[in-house]
């Protein structure tokens, strides 16, 4: 039986990847290895509790002994590595946590894969999920391609860049069959409300100020999380070893345009007077080292493997907003406790 170890499967993107693989490939055994940090939530996968091909293991990739034991027990043929510290603002307040999880954790996982696979690399795959933020910041023109020089500017992107380099080094030095993808900003259900879109939806719901960093003209390329999961499925099965694939939504928005769109959608869905939520928009101090623009050229993935996004921004944003309105209990649960402390520290006047 083909066994895949997915790290970080209880997080935002990981939970969509786990669900896709468990339901689409009943013949595979899917093991979700997650430390359940503040960002990991088993509620995201409660619908899979009874799936016979799904296994959850609480484990920390920074702990090589624990990792070795889990790998030994499950003997995975494939690894899809998503576990990470993922929020830029947290990386500014605590860079070391990002080095530990994203760099050291990735190297531990590479070592564990080498150890368990030895010389027998046939049918094996180490898939490293990364971000477009490793390429740095664009001006008004141009796109990131797979050839763009690495130029990370936040502790988060620097840690992801370092992990990408290690993954490539293990391909060249040890012939580990790796593949890497670098994706643009994701959105969709189960996104932790420290990131822009779910934070704004949550604040509109609660009639709280909507914090926009700097002038609000920073630009991101937004991808529907289920399209990212489909891209990962495609690349896991058909991507070429040693290659990198960029994944993007071809869907650029300035932050201010995105937030006003969400305001208008929520006014409509909540039956509020048009314009109510826009009044909550508040410009706040900028993020240090804030990257101006990200935009992906995903033509390699489209031309080589035939993947392209399946939903328009209008459909994706509407479904996302509706999911948060239908799942208020999920939101209430994740914003209780430690979230309050984080929020008051991050958005202190
Ligand atoms: P997330 O923060 O929602 O989830 C991360 C998951 O990793 C959580 O479940 C957490 O418990 C787990 N984790 C953290 N530290 C761990 C450790 N030491 N050991 C085991 N598990 C640990 O992140 P996400 O947004 O779902 O991102 C997943 C991956 O995709 C990351 O590698 C990120 O860099 C990459 N990525 C994210 C985006 C995005 O827009 N969110 C875009 C491109 C790439
Ligand atoms: P974020 O969701 O943190 O993703 P990333 O920084 O990885 O792209 O932020 C998306 C954009 O929104 C980014 O330009 C920063 C901005 N932003 C705000 O303006 N206000 C906020 O409260 C947050 C969290 C982000």
What report would you give on this structure?
- This protein has 349 residues and is α/β, with parallel strands linked by helices.
- It has a domain at 3-189 and 223-251 and 289-313: NAD(P)-binding Rossmann-like Domain (Rossmann fold, 3-Layer(aba) Sandwich).
- The chain has twelve helices and twelve strands.
- It has helices at residues 12-24, 64-74, 88-93, 95-117, 155-174, 196-205, 225-238, 255-270, 299-305, 313-326, 328-334, 338-346, and strands spanning 3-7, 29-34, 54-58, 78-81, 125-131, 178-183, 185-187, 210-213, 219-224, 244-247, 252-254, 281-284.
- The chain has a seven-stranded parallel sheet, sandwiched between helices. It has a three-stranded mixed sheet with strand order 7-9-11.
- Helix 4 runs parallel beside helix 5.
- Nicotinamide-adenine-dinucleotide binds next to helix 1, helix 4, strand 5 and strand 7.
Compact overview of the structure:
With 349 residues, this protein is an alpha/beta fold. It is built from 12 helices and 12 strands. The termini are far apart.
Which helices and strands occur, and which strands form pairs?
Layout: E1 3-7, H1 12-24, E2 29-34, E3 54-58, H2 64-74, E4 78-81, H3 88-93, H4 95-117, E5 125-131, H5 155-174, E6 178-183, E7 185-187, H6 196-205, E8 210-213, E9 219-224, H7 225-238, E10 244-247, E11 252-254, H8 255-270, E12 281-284, H9 299-305, H10 313-326, H11 328-334, H12 338-346
Parallel strand pairs: 1-2, 1-4, 2-3, 4-5, 5-6, 6-10, 7-9, 8-12
Antiparallel strand pairs: 9-11
The structure holds nicotinamide-adenine-dinucleotide (NAD) and thymidine-5'-diphosphate.
